[in-house]
Amino acid sequence: MDEATVRRSTLRWSELSDPAHRAVYDTYRALIGLRRAHPELADPRLDEFTVEAGDSWLVLHRGQRRVIVNLGTTEAKILLDRPATEVPWCRPPPT
Predict the structure, then answer these.
(1) Which of 15, 38, 79, 89 is least crowded, fewest Cβ atoms below 10 Å from its Cβ?
(2) Contact at 8 Å (CB) between 68 and 90?
(3) How far is CA 25 from the centre of its chain?
(4) What DSSP state is assigned to residue 54?
């Protein structure tokens, strides 16, 4: 691996005191936790994975799980193929 790539990709622990950097770190930790808690999210088989996309959103379908991502700056209404029964993680938390 290229040394410059390693340097750019290595976490700078001193930056965790910055709220913006901490938010990114916490997001990655939460997503890693979801993959551990729900093995179907870590399944590498692409034939078991589908994606729907809209203007500023994505819905990733993996097994019985749905990962919903709003890439926009406003609330998005996204229709799902079935009712959501749980929200194990959300950023920002729902109000």
Answers:
(1) 79
(2) no
(3) 12
(4) -
